[in-house]
C-alpha cells in the first residue's frame, strides 16, 4: 500500500505572503463597501446608535428632515468617556460602559480593529462627544453614499476619489498588518553605532532598528525627553539621522507618485492651491495674538464656522427648524472651488453640444437622462456594460433607442464619452456641495465644532505656552514652496514664440520633493521642541497614550524592555491554522498563488531598494521612487475596471488609461503642461512585475480570515485613561 502524501504546510515566507494577500484585499473591500448607504449602519462601534438619535437618510439634494445633529454647541453633549469627577472641567478620562454589541466588529473588522486600537484612543479624539460618531459623522458618510458619486468606470478615466481611496487602503492595510501580525524585529535587535547615508541597505536597516526600538524598546520615552531639550532631531543618534533620511525619501516618493505620476496629480495641486489661496492667514495670525485661549478658540470658530443669515437666526430661536441657514467661511470656500470646477466642465459640455460633427441631440439627451436615474438603474447599466463588453455610452444609448448607438461614429462615441464624463463630474460636485455645504441639519459644521471641543484642553495648554503664529507662518511658507515645486521647473527656451505659446515645464522629480522636505524639516523639529519644552503636561498625556498604543504592535515571543502583559501579533499563527483546516486539494490549488505573491513581494522589495540607491547616489533626477506600498497602491489602480474605448470592445483596466483625465478638469489641460510627463509615467512603471491574481486565495480563506479577526477582537481595551487637568 502506497504511503499517503503528507498534507501541505506553509513556510514562514508563504505565511507572510498569505497574510499580505488577505489584508490587501480585505482592507480595500471594506473601504469600497462604504459606497453602500447601509454599510455604515452595520459598522458597529462607535457608529452604533449610542444616543438613540441617528439622522434620517438624506434626500437627493443632500438635505434631511430629521432634527438630529443640532447645530448648537456640542460642549454639553454626553461623551462616551465620563469625567473623572463631577464639576471637573478637565478632559474626560474614564471609558463609559459599552455593551458587547456596541463594540462588535460588525461588517468591517480590519477598519474597526484599526479604529478602536489607535485613532479612538488618541487624547482629544477619545473625548469627542458620542453624538459626533453616531449622528454627525455617520450621517455624513451615509449622505455621501446616498449621493451615489460617479465611478471611474463610467468616466473612462481614473478619478480623484479612486486615487485617494486606493492610497488610503494601502496605508490602512500596512497598519493592519502591524496590529494583527506584530511589528517585525530588526536583525540586530536594536540600533547600531554607524549608518552609511549613501547606502540603501543601511537606510533600510535604520528603519527596521527604529521600529524595533519604538515597539520593543523605550525610544518614544527617550525621544520626548530629548525634544524637551533640543530642536535638532538629527543629532539625537546616527540611527535617527539615517531613519529621517529614509522617511524623507519615502515621503518624497509618495508626493511624487500622487502629484506627478498620477494623472490626477495636477488637479490635486490645483485644488490645494485654490484652497490655500482662500485661507485668511493674516486674520488667523491676528486671532492667535489673543492671550486668552478661550477667547481665541471662540474667535477662530466664529471666523470659519459662524453663519450670518436669516435662516440661521430663525433656526436658533426656534421659529423654523432645518431652514437653509447659509454657509460659513469654510463651506463657502469649498463651494466656490468646486463651483470653479463645474464651470470648466460646463465649457466641455457646451463645446460638444455646439460641435456640428458631434453626437446627435437625442444621444446627448439620453446621457442627460441617465444622470437623473436611480443609483440602482445606473449600477445596472454599468454591470451590463461589463458583461456585454460594450461601452457604458453604448449601453445607455441602447436603453433609450438602440439605433442611437448603431449610428455613432468612432469620433462621436469618443465625444459622447467626454460628454458623459463632464456631466458626471458636474453632478459629483453638486452633490458634494449639497452634502457638505447645503444640508440641513448642518452635520459638517457641527462635526468640526465637536472636534474642536475634544481637543480644546490641549489647544488651551499649548496656546498658553507657545506662540502659534510663528508655526502658522511656517506652514503657509511650506505650502507655498510645495505648490511651487509641484508645478515643475520651467524649461528654458521651451516655447518657440513666448508671445503666442505658453511656457513649458518639466515635471518635478523625487529629489525635488526630497529637497523640499529637507529644507523644511527644521520647522517641524522646532514645533515639536517648543511643545515638549513648554507644554510638558500635553507631552505626558500623549506619551501615556503612545505607551499603551505601541503594545498592540508587539509580537508575543519578542522580549520587551520593561514589562507588558498585553501583546498582540498572534494572527500569523492563526493563519497557519486556517490553512491547515482546508482540504488538501484546496491547499494545493492556492499554494501556487501564495508562492507567486511571495515572489512578487520579493521582487518589488528589490526594486524599492534599488530606487533608494538611485536617489541617494545623486547621479540623476529620479522619476520613480521606492516603497513597496506605492507599488501595491499602483496595482490597485492598475486593476480598476474602465469602460471599453469603443462601442463594442474589451473592458479596460486602469493601466490602460494612465494618462487619461476627465475632459475639462482643471490642471489637466495641455496649456502650461509638463514636457515628457507621459514618458516619465511609462518609465516609472517599466520593469514592475504585475501583481499576481489572488482571487483563489480570497475565495478559499477570505471569509474565514474576516471571522478570525472578528473573533479575536476584544471589547475591554479602549485605550489609556491618561489626561491633562
Automatic annotation (TrEMBL):
GO function terms (MF aspect): phosphatidylinositol binding
Alphabetized Pfam families for the sequence: DUF3818, PXB
Domain PX-associated, chain residue ranges per copy: 8-177
UniProt biased composition (Polar residues): 51-63, 87-99
Domain of life: Eukaryota
Ranges of residues in domain PX: 221-415
UniProt cross-references to InterPro entries, sorted A to Z: LEC1-like, LEC1-like_C, PX-associated
Compositional bias per record (Low complexity), positions renumbered to this chain: 64-86
Chain positions covered by the region annotation Disordered: 51-99, 650-675
Protein name per its UniProtKB record: PX-associated-domain-containing protein
